[in-house]
Amino acid sequence: MIDFKKPRTPFLFTTLLIILTITYVILDDRWGNFGMNKTVGNAWDFNFTSITPVLSVLVLFISFFSYGIMWFFDLKLNKTFALFNLAFLIPSVGMMSSGVQFGYSLFALLMLAVNIAYAIGFKKYDKKQNLQ
Prior knowledge:
By secondary structure, the chain is mainly α. It is built from 4 helices and 2 strands, in the order αββααα. It is elongated, with a radius of gyration of 19 Å.
């Protein structure tokens, strides 16, 4: 059974999302133009018309590193917030050219922040209970 209370599972899911995103960016031709240039030979140009795909990838990497740190420190997550974070990350990465992607990215970042606060609060509460 998949246990979303441990940061290992969301960490592995975000790793899978990063691999899928890198594959999507490499195989999709909308991200850049490749051609021949008389001066330098091969030429590559990035076509970023908006900041929202960059925001989505940034939120994905922030989630990846945050879950990795929480896994390292053995923090306990809230299962609901972890599932909501992943549920908002998937469409955020999947709809790279949509205008709704900005909202999904912000909600994913908000769910991650709430989950981090919950994990730290639970760790402090657990430590306080062990001292008594």
